[in-house]
Structures are given as C-alpha cells and as structure tokens.
Design brief:
Layout (H helix, E strand, L loop, with lengths): L2 H8 L2 E9 L2 E2 L5 E4 L5 E5 L6 E10 L3 E11 L12 H4 L7 H15 L9 E3 L10 E9 L4 E6 L8 E2 L8 H16 L7 E8 L5 E7 L10 E5 L2 E5 L9 H16 L5 E5 L7 H4 L4 E6 L2 H11 L5 E5 L14 E4 L8 H10 L3 E6 L2 H13 L3 E8 L9 E7 L1
Parallel strand pairs: 4-6, 7-20, 15-16, 15-18, 16-17, 18-19
Antiparallel strand pairs: 1-5, 2-3, 3-4, 5-6, 8-9, 8-11, 9-10, 11-12, 13-14, 19-21, 20-21
C-alpha cells in the first residue's frame, strides 16, 4: 500500500453503529473507550462521561485505535470552547475548565501511585494558565492563496503543516516577535522551504531571543538570556534546556528548599542538573555537587556556579557519577521523560541517602523508579503535583523519599 493511500485510510472518518462512552482520561491525555468488539479506542477531544458517535482515525494497531472525536452526543458539563483553533496540537486540554483539569490531573496521579500512596496529593496550580510558555518553536507554511509565509504547527497525528492566526499558550512577546520575523521574510520575498523552523524564547522581562533554523545547516547558537529565580540570576541559551513556566517552577523550588532546610545534611547532590537552577536555588549554603552530561548546558552550569565556592559542577552522565552518592546527603533527581537509569536506582538503594527528592515531568516512569526504591525499604514522605503546562495532559510531580 502506498504511503498516500495509507494516510488516507488513517485519516478517514469513522461513524460508529453503537456509540461509545468515554470511561476516563489516560495519563497521556486521551479519553479511553471500549468498542463493541472489545478493542480499546483512545480519543482526543473527549472528556469522561461523554458519548462519541464518530471520530477521525489517526492510528490503528491490532489491539487499539487512536483518533480525534468529531461527533459528541452528550457533552460533559466540564467542556468549554477552546481559545485556539489549533488547540489539539499545542494544548489539547483547552476543552475543559481549570477546575476539571486540576481534578483530572490529580486523578491521574492517584491512579498511577495507587499501589504506593493512599494519602492526599496536593496540587499546585500555575499562577498563569494562559501565555505562560517562555519558549516556542514554529514551522513555516507558504499559503498559496495569500502568497505569504505564515507561522504554522503540525496537526496532531499528521506531518502536514497548518497556519495559525493566534496562540494563547506562549508569552505574548514571543508571538509578536514570530509575526515580525515572518513579516520580514515576506517583505524580502523569502521562501518557507529554506527554513526548518523558527525558535523563540522570552525571559521574565519579555526580552526575546532566538531565530530561524536554516534547512540543511547546523543549528546556530543564539544570544543567551538571563532570568532571576528565587533571587538568583541564571544565564541560559534560548535553544538549550530551561524550564518553560518559571512562575510555577519557583513554587516547586520553594517546596524543595523547605524540604532540604528541614534536614541537617551538609551535602546535596543534584543529578540531571541542566544549567543548575534546582541545586543552586535550593542548596547554596550546602556542599553542592551538580552533574550534567550535555556539554552546552554544562558550560552554562559552570558559568552559573562561578561565584559559589561550595558548588562543584561535574560533566558526566548521572548514571556514571555514582561515586558521588553517599548515605548522609540529599539527592535531587530531575531526569528526562525516560526516568532514571537502573544503575542509578541500584546505587541509591545500596547507599541509602538520607533523603531523595524526585521531580519528574513523566509520572509514569517516576512511578516505576519509586516502586523499586520503596521495595528496597524507602518510604514516601510526600507527593505533590505542579501544573507546569496548563491546558495539556502533562503533569510535573514531586516525590520525597527517605530511607
């Protein structure tokens, strides 16, 4: 079957003879239902309790189907009109109220941790639920009708490009700068095909850096930005790793600092440290070791550590820096979505540090890692949720453990 024919089949509209009810939302954000033949179906643009008559199929395997609901018989009382036309690609939970989002994200965490934690999970809402993102990467699209380049995104389940007229999740300054750059391309008669994407980042003061990635050329480095987090100033690259939502990030950091301040430990090990914003914000008065593997991030980490004699940056994979783990210390974990390397978990179990503070952007892998620690004798002290990405399914969760 040709690729075009296969794509047409996947993007076809399916009308169900027997409508299905959405049972709940999955940790990945779709609503889940069961077809009459027992096959599971995962649908975007759905909320618990809604009945679905038709959908557009985006993926099909032997045991499940994925798609986007197109006809909803009885809408949930939590459903609201999304702000953005392209919401399914950028922030698919724009369809629900803020109150419903808090409830659903809390429920997801409770379900994931059900075998490990029966106590309350506190939820920390973002101070801003719109225009909170400080980084955005756009595609470029040539509109043959207007004969102009337009900012674009990839629709969910598609490799095509769709132009966007407005966007409500990134900082206003970013969207304004994107339009200025695209206007300049159009003024100069440039072509969209010459560029891979447009990446922009803004700091708290609204200063925007970044620019165009040219097709077929190495990604260039842009001018650094600086931001103040818990009264400490950090330098970072627009195209490097740095937190997307700084207002809620500061709330999470204050929680971490409070946990550390209540211990008597003199040593803190910050693994997967990036440019150092966690360790340097919460443990400046400790003997602090920060481990980062990315060379670009490490250079910025070194720069951020330069005025603090008690901080030692280490260029290494966290799973290769196991010798730094000791019993009488606090270990901070902030791994990528894949979670912690098994060797690292095994070393934590062997050394049994005084406290482990585990911040995760993927509770699914976090639960896997925490379960291994608990089986080895660690005790969960608290679990909190942070809404780093409002109107999306993403949850940041903070788990504190002690041996």
């Amino acid at each position: 079957m040709s690729r075009n024919r296969r794509n047409r089949k996947l993007n076809e509209k399916i009308t169900l003879e027997k409508p299905v009810d959405i049972e709940k939302l999955t940790p990945t954000g779709q609503g889940i239902a069961t077809l009459s033949d027992g096959k599971k179906i995962f649908l975007w643009n759905t909320l618990p309790g809604e009945t679905i008559k038709s959908f557009t199929k985006t993926k099909e395997k032997s045991s499940f189907i994925e798609g986007i609901a197109t006809e909803i018989i009885n809408a949930s009382k939590d459903r609201i009109e999304p702000k953005d036309e392209q919401f399914l690609s950028t922030s698919p939970w724009q369809i629900m109220t803020d109150e419903a989002e808090v409830r659903e994200k809390t429920n997801v965490l409770k379900e994931l941790f059900r075998n490990l934690w029966n106590n309350k999970i506190d939820f920390n809402q973002s101070p801003k639920t719109w225009h909170y993102r400080n980084k955005m990467e756009y595609s470029l699209y040539y509109n043959f009708e207007t004969e102009k380049i337009e900012p674009a995104i990839h629709p969910r389940g598609s490799h095509t490009k769709t132009p966007i007229k407005n966007s409500s999740i990134e900082k206003i300054e970013i969207w304004q700068k994107a339009k200025e750059i695209v206007d300049e391309l159009n003024k100069n008669g440039d072509e969209a095909k010459n560029y891979q994407s447009l990446l922009l980042r803004a700091n708290k003061n609204g200063k925007v850096e970044g620019g165009l990635y040219k097709k077929g050329e190495p990604h260039q480095k842009f001018n650094n930005l600086t931001d103040e987090i818990l009264s400490n100033t950090y330098s970072y690259s627009p195209n490097g790793f740095f937190q997307i939502n700084l207002e809620i990030y500061e709330i999470a950091l204050k929680k971490i600092k409070d946990i550390i301040d209540k211990t008597e430990t003199k040593k803190v090990l910050d693994l997967y440290s990036g440019v150092g914003t966690i360790g340097l914000s919460v443990a400046r008065d400790k003997e602090l070791i920060l481990v980062e593997v990315d060379k670009s991030a490490y250079e910025e980490l070194e720069n951020n550590c330069r005025d603090l004699a008690s901080a030692t940056p280490v260029l290494a994979k966290s799973e290769d820096a196991l010798s730094y783990i000791e019993p009488e210390m606090v270990v901070i974990l902030d791994p990528p979505r894949a979670g912690c390397d098994k060797k690292l978990i095994e070393k934590l179990i062997e050394e049994k540090p005084e406290k482990i503070i585990y911040l995760s952007c993927n509770p699914i892998t976090q639960v896997r890692d925490v379960e291994l620690l608990v089986e080895a004798g660690a005790k969960i002290e608290s679990i909190e949720a942070f809404n780093f990405f409002p109107h999306t399914p993403h949850i940041e969760s903070l788990v504190t453990l002690t041996f």
